[in-house]
Specification:
Layout lengths: L2 E6 L36 E4 L19 E12 L6 E7 L13 E4 L5 E9 L17 E4 L19 E8 H6 L8 E7 L2
Parallel strand pairs: 1-9
Antiparallel strand pairs: 2-3, 3-8, 4-7, 4-9, 5-6, 6-8
């Protein structure tokens, strides 16, 4: 089974302390004192909502040898780094052979030491997985949660309205050239504050 795992960097520090508190004066009617309150909110990021992908290609799906087999999904990225919700996304996984020029390459491991290469696109626009271009294994790309006119999410799960997307593409010719059997691998999506 192809697994897409997610990881995120998270650090929390909230500080509330009196800075220049002033004592009140002794009085027979009333006394007042002042206390300043401050807090520091760190940059926070979180990725959620990715699901495992299982590809099941049939002979009909692969009849066009110049075609491709695609699977995509949307997911959520929370970031409080500026009002734009800035973050970096990198995807780690087994490197594969080059596909078409400019297409990043990842691979699944299969029987008899064989691999099956595929391309991966990642985007900070939920409605367009191709907007961000192909992802290169381990290379971080800068994104923002507000791309494509999306509102910056203020909840950790995007209130069920995802703001990022991904797509994997296997060329039919590579699938046809592969030895029969099960091919598996793991992609680790990592989001970081800028």
């Amino acid at each position: 089974m192809k697994k897409f795992l997610c990881a995120s960097a998270l650090a929390v520090a909230v500080v509330a302390s009196p800075a220049l508190a002033q004592d009140g004066s002794l009085s027979s009617t009333s006394s007042s004192a002042e206390v300043d309150i401050s807090t520091t909110i760190p940059k926070l990021v979180r990725i959620s909502g990715l699901q495992d992908i299982t590809l099941t290609a049939s002979a009909t799906d692969l009849a066009n040898t110049s075609g491709a087999y695609n699977r995509g999904q949307t997911f959520c990225v929370y970031s409080n780094d500026t009002m734009a919700g800035l973050y970096k996304l990198s995807v780690n996984g087994q490197a594969g052979a080059e596909l078409n020029t400019g297409e990043a390459k990842y691979a699944l491991s299969g029987p008899e030491g064989q691999t099956l290469s595929f391309a991966l696109w990642t985007s900070d626009v939920a409605a367009n997985a191709y907007a961000g271009g192909t992802a290169t294994p381990g290379v971080a790309k800068s994104f923002k949660t507000t791309s494509g006119g999306q509102a910056r999410t203020t909840t950790l799960n995007c209130n069920g309205t995802e703001n990022a997307s991904m797509n994997v593409r296997f060329s039919n010719s590579r699938i046809l050239a592969a030895v029969a059997g099960t091919y598996t691998g793991t992609l680790t999506f990592v989001v970081e504050a800028l």
